[in-house]
Amino acid sequence: MKRASTMEVKRQNRNNVYRIIYQKGKISKQEIANKLNLSLPTVAQNLTELFEKGLIYENGSFDSTGGRKAKGISCNMDAKTAIGLDITRNHISGVLVNLLGEVLYSIRTRLHFEDNRKYYEELRSLVDRIIEEGRADPYTILGIGISMPGIIGADHKTITYAPVVETTTLFEDLKGYLPYPYAIINDAKAGGFAELWHSPHAENMVYLSLSNSVGGAVLMNNELYYGDQRLSGEIGHMTLEIDGKPCYCGKKGCMDPYCNAQVLSRRTGGDLKKFFELLDKGDKDCRQEWETYLKYLSVAINNLRNCLDCEVILGGYVGSYMDSHIDELRQMVIKRSTFTTDGKFVQSCAFKFESSAVGAGLYYIDEYIKCI
Ligand SMILES: [Zn+2]
């Protein structure tokens, strides 16, 4: 038992050394020792192990006030990569991300989801394209995170509810098609995780994914909070109107039919960009639709704040247009709020590009960094 715990301390030290280099970008051996309260020989031993794994490299030197210049040490962010896929009803997006979460390559293609061999072959060839056109070293790829709308079990295999992309057997069906380990992740939770990854200031947040359906993610203490039944963040099915509009889930008055992106884009033939262009030009119908939309959204945001008291981040298709409309929304939230607020806890997403695909890839990156 004693031996196991010594091993664990060693692993934790190595992980801490790696993380401090990762966070600092460039750091000296002495500074690592100071910050982690470790002896120089211990730091040196860990650095040797990390060098041997190709995870770090010597990166120039620091100016010193006398004596030898200290060598800089940085992480080799491309030492490991992961692929993220985002499956929606009519499209697949794919990205290649590195250890920093940078997108090295991305692709989006129109492909209607079908639970058949042809679809899975297309998926496989998309993965091949990502590897080839993204110039990924196949040995660096940790795995493929697959984002899709649905309730996904803790094993990242079991799908218990998926009315948008109709499959509960995706994991089994993909067996034999993909060249790497793969895991299934809820799309909004993946999007929220990508947002958290790229917003180092925030520890707690609710992420609202305002796409063709409304999803969400609750992130507490820098981790996804799943809930007892993996149902946390299903914000689209919070009741906003008793016996209101029908929702695709079969119930009435859920947030989804009031706040999904199609509520807006159906005014402009399915073109959300055009909706916001017309809105900005002062189109009366778009303005009226927008005000109704914001009314329901502000109710949901007020409820979320009363429940969780943290930042509420607006992502998804609508979230990516929110920057120039955030003040209007904040004013509506302030009016509704019981507790004093300047509304700043409501924010548009910082990470606007393929967040679900990126978050799905980050699942493998996060698991890897935890185990270094
Ligand atoms: Zn519903």
Structural notes for this entry:
The structure is a single chain. The chain has helices spanning 2-24, 29-36, 40-52, 117-133, 170-173, 187-197, 256-259, 261-265, 272-280, 284-308, 316-319, 326-336, 355-371; strands spanning 56-62, 70-75, 81-87, 91-98, 103-110, 141-148, 151-152, 159-161, 182-186, 205-210, 214-220, 223-225, 311-315, 346-348. With 372 residues, it is of the alpha/beta class. It folds into 3 domains: 2-75, Orthogonal Bundle (Arc Repressor Mutant, subunit A); 81-192 and 357-371, 2-Layer Sandwich (Nucleotidyltransferase, domain 5); 199-348, ATPase, nucleotide binding domain (Nucleotidyltransferase, domain 5), CATH 3.30.420. Strands 5-4-3-6-9 form a 5-stranded mixed sheet, sandwiched between helices. A 5-stranded mixed sheet has the order 12-11-10-13-14, with helices on both faces. Strands 1-2 form a two-stranded antiparallel sheet. Strand 3 and strand 4 form a beta hairpin. The longest helix has 25 residues, at 284-308. The radius of gyration is 23 Å and the shape is globular. Bound molecules: zinc ion (ZN). The site of zinc ion has 6 residues, from loops. Zinc ion binds at residues 237, 247, 249, 251, 254, 256. This is ROK family transcriptional regulator.
